[in-house]
Every structure is written in C-alpha cells, then in structure tokens.
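Need a sequence for this fold. Nothing fancy.
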C-alpha cells in the first residue's frame, strides 16, 4: 500500500500514513485515526492536505521536529547554486 504525507497547517505537523490510492483523508481526526496517534489540542475537524513529494518518501520521523520540510530548489533541472545536492 502506498504511503502519503499529510500536513496540518494549524499545528504545523506532517504525518505519514499508508492507504489505498482511492482513499481520501481530509481532516486531522481522520489522519490521527489512520496513524493511530492522539489528536491532541488540534480539533478533529481541522483540514489537512496531502503533500506532493514528487515520488520521494518523507518520513515524519525523519523530520526531527515534526514540522514540514524546507521547500526544494526550483522545479526541475539542476540547482544553479549547488546547495540542494540535486544534480
């Protein structure tokens, strides 16, 4: 089953879950239920959005702070500064 990363703008958290491509998760409560984590202080009805990871898997545990990753360098092509590490 594919894994997807969802972001909650209200609490600035990113959570990784597995589900069928045909399924949709749209609220913090649905996401927490799927990930088997408590909702905490964030209302269950708070909207979440699926992150576009470009085929790269981003594990929420790899984010350290649990906040969203920094944006990648410009879309496509080589990074002109060489800072991002994409060639």
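Here you go.
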């Amino acid at each position: 089953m594919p894994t997807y990363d969802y972001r909650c703008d209200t609490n600035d958290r990113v959570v990784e879950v597995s589900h069928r491509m045909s399924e949709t998760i749209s609220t913090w409560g649905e996401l927490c239920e799927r990930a088997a984590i408590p909702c905490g202080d964030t209302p269950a009805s708070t909207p979440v959005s699926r992150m576009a990871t470009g085929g790269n898997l981003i594990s929420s545990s790899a984010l350290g702070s649990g906040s969203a990753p920094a944006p990648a360098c410009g879309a496509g092509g080589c990074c002109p500064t060489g800072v991002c590490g994409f060639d």
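For context: The helical segments are 28-35.
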